Amino acid sequence: MGFPVSLRVDDIDGTDDIDVVSEAGDAVFTWLREVDERFSPFKAGSEVSRYGRGELPAARLSPDLVEILGLCERYRVATGGAFDARLPGRGFDPCAIVKGWSVQRAAERLAAAGAGRFCLNAGGDVVVGGGPWRVGIRHPEIADKVCTVLELTDGAVATSARYERGDHILDGRTGLPATGLLSVSVVAPTLTEADAVATAAFAMGTEGVEWAAGLAGCEVYAVDAGRGVVRTAGFPSAGVGAA
After folding, report:
1. Listed residue (112, 107, 131, 118) closest to 193, CA to CA
2. Is pLDDT above 50 for 241?
3. 210: closest CA among 236, 237, 180?
4. In what order do the strands lie in the sheet with 237-240?
5. N-term to C-term CA, the chain
6. Which stretches within the chain are classed as H helix?
7. Is 215 exposed, middle or buried (0-12, 13-18, 19+ CB in 10 A)?
8. How many CB atoms are located within 10 Å of the residue 126 CB?
9. What is the dihedral angle through the alpha carbons of 13, 18, 23, 25, rounded to the nearest 10 degrees?
10. Residue 34 zone, left/alpha/beta (φ > 0; ψ -120 to 50; rest)
């Protein structure tokens, strides 16, 4: 999937038996590998690639892909086209939705298996259960520093930024790289929402911060291109101030 994934599980149904915990962890990575095979636009035989080439009619789409398509359309409409999985010249690419969705599904599988306390980190986007957990938000310009730390009990946080992959997020309204923000982090009940909203807000630029902050259940921490910090009143800071 193009990013590192780490998992910490402290107990399954009240046990710390290593075999039980390992089995639950193995199921998470098996699922994520399955998602990579089915939904990667970089693999010619994946369902997403076949759909993008027009080889799969609507009646033959998996329920999962139907759900992904619905989420893509939801955020395209909500952002006035700033977030768009169908950018000209790039083909259908739902990765911005699939990442958070798949990791949230993995977390739900952990919870269903009896995980009482866990932290699943996928390339810096995090979903936790049974906290409190402290999660650092990387400084957008200094790799070995954090700009803030938040505290989560059950929920997720996702960050969209330019520091790992450069100007890879495009504003679908213009087709140009989104450069109004250095980073935006969104806290939400699920990583499906947190990741999609963070990406969509970044694509919108500075107006995206207010848009994300207005969504029910979302809290936002953003650093704009002028290095100004915007933080919603309910952002669950652990007491570490902005850089």
Report:
1. 107
2. no
3. 180
4. 133-138, 146-152, 237-240
5. 31
6. 18-39, 47-52, 63-78, 95-112, 191-204, 206-213
7. middle
8. 26
9. 90
10. alpha
Confidence of residue 228 (pLDDT cuts 50, 70, 90): very high
Residue 104 tokens, joined: 């949230």
**3-state DSSP: the chain helix, strand, coil percent, rounded to 5?**
35, 30, 35
Q: How far apart are CA 73 and CA 211, in angstroms?
A: 17
Residue 165 confidence (pLDDT) = 64
CA proximity to 158, closest of 102, 81, 239? 102
φ/ψ region of 147 (left if φ > 0, alpha if ψ in -120 to 50, else beta) reads alpha
What was the pLDDT predicted at 13? 74
Distances in Å between the Cα of 202 and the Cα atoms of 131, 167, 184, 218 are 28, 11, 6, 15
CA distances (Å), origin 43, targets 38, 47, 91, 100 = 9, 9, 13, 19
Which distant-in-sequence residues (6+ apart) come within 8 Å of 143 by Cβ? 163
Given CA atoms 140, 145, 147, 152 in this order, what sign does their dihedral have? Answer: positive
Could you give the CA distance from residue 2 to residue 238 in angstroms, rounded to a whole number? 30
Who contacts 237 (Cβ-Cβ below 8 Å, separation ≥6)?
Answer: 148, 149, 150, 151, 231
Residue 103 confidence (pLDDT) above 50: yes
What whole-number distance in Å separates Cα of residue 197 and Cα of residue 215? Answer: 9
Answer whether 0.85 is exceeded by the pTM: yes
